[in-house]
Amino acid sequence: MNIADQTFPAIDGANEDRAQAIRDQLRDAIVDRRLAPGTKLSEGEVGTLFDVSRTVARAALQMLSFEGLVRTERNRGAFVANPSPEEARQVFASRRLIEPGIAIAAAGRMTPADVAAFKTQLEEEGRFIAERGPTARRSEIKASGDFHLLLAAVAGNVILQRFMEELVARSSLVIALYGRSGISSCGHNEHMQILEALEAGNAERASALMLHHIDHIEADLDLRVRSGPALRQALEF
Amino acid sequence: MNIADQTFPAIDGANEDRAQAIRDQLRDAIVDRRLAPGTKLSEGEVGTLFDVSRTVARAALQMLSFEGLVRTERNRGAFVANPSPEEARQVFASRRLIEPGIAIAAAGRMTPADVAAFKTQLEEEGRFIAERGPTARRSEIKASGDFHLLLAAVAGNVILQRFMEELVARSSLVIALYGRSGISSCGHNEHMQILEALEAGNAERASALMLHHIDHIEADLDLRVRSGPALRQALEF
DNA sequence: TCGGCAGAAATCGTATGCAATCTTTTCCAA
DNA sequence: TTGGAAAAGATTGCATACGATTTCTGCCGA
Lengths: 237, 237
Known about the structure:
Strand content of chain A: under 5%
Strand order of the largest sheet of chain A: 1-3-2
Structural class of chain A: mainly alpha
Number of helices of chain A: 10
CATH class of the largest domain in chain A: Mainly Alpha
Largest interface: A-B, 26 and 26 residues
Protein name (chains A, B): Transcriptional regulator
GO molecular function, one term (chains A, B): DNA binding
Domain HTH gntR-type (chains A, B): 16-83
InterPro entries (chains A, B): GntR_C, TF_FadR/GntR_C, Tscrpt_reg_HTH_GntR, WH-like_DNA-bd_sf, WH_DNA-bd_sf
Pfam families (chains A, B): FCD, GntR
Helix content of chain A: 55-70%
Distance between the termini of chain A: 11 Å
CATH architecture of the largest domain in chain A: Up-down Bundle
Oligomer: homodimer
Radius of gyration of chain A: 18 Å
Order of helices and strands of chain A: HEHHEEHHHHHHH
CATH superfamily of the largest domain in chain A: GntR ligand-binding domain-like
């Protein structure tokens, strides 16, 4: 999987920050697994693809590097991150710490509009599960992450929201690398249960369900080190 | 307070990343309050001060902007962040969520070397409290933050560690803006109590103490909006 | 055939130039 | 004096150029 094989919508050269737009495109591609972990993202290529100079492409890659989605090596370039099992565990440890609290905060702030937004989101999620094929699978992983992001938005703390954006994006990478099965339908059920608790204003229950939900996601991963770490490093694409 | 009044150690033009070195210098200056909130950080000036091109200075400022220490406005430039009371509350809400968990994780991983490091840190903290003068006050705030950063390092989760680095840095800004008194000596006592609990392996107690500690720090702030938000915005340096 | 070395090609790090945008100053009329 | 418009100045956004570093390639000797 090479970045040159991807097609990206043109960046509207309007007043918006173009580097940010490119970052968003690339992030989507990484989270959707259209760009595999380890793929090289050279400044020149990214620039050509989006029709901007290396300066702008570089800025976009720097942003992704801050988010942990891209790893940059001096004088070598940027690569889609290839999280280690240990990193994967830390991602989920972080989520276990943060998301139950976010659920509690969100429970106290849910508006009818929020409930409606969640229902729309969950419907879409359900549709992707029903469909078959790799495209649907990708959309499904994305939608599953969107549930958590929506929750973070409702919680109303922009700092935590940004942390969650990073954690959800990194989780997608981790699931891509270490995911075992299609536990997703189970996750969908759990999302619905969490929404019920939120709608009922039952913060405690929402929080507990969230904790279990994260445990379930992580339990579906196979985080055993497959071979000696030296070999793994050497093979790192 | 203008950035041009500051003196910075020269960046060693060696193999290290120069933008990163500049970011660290600027972050220290912001956290130490040598650069006041609202101070303009123009690319050209930063570049001249550190003897690098605007390209490198720009990269450093972009990093600080990601950390929330610097706010950038398109076509206008970068300014030391000026967090609103609401933002301040969110910083502390985030810390209340994360730090008790970090304390628990750290309690299970403390080595004798860690304990020694904490003791050294707390001694230094104590020294700054004893001293008088604005310089000592700055060092004291910095040292107080270092306690929390050390704890995050011991906890062993690099993701959470990075989150904490951001939160501690932003807290320094918030304290600079909204801090009322020298509650710091009280904070120092609390740090010592937390260390005792950690040393005893009492994770629950360490966690509870941490939560109270954060509450105390926030309680020392005066987060009332001083004037109409419109006026405040207008006066924003 | 294989390892390794030299040159070529690719890629990155950084400085600099130019256009676009914003800010400040100047100046004139009310 | 005050308001406002226009010019001058400063600063950013972006592209491009060039040296430095790394990677690739082809060739040679063992």
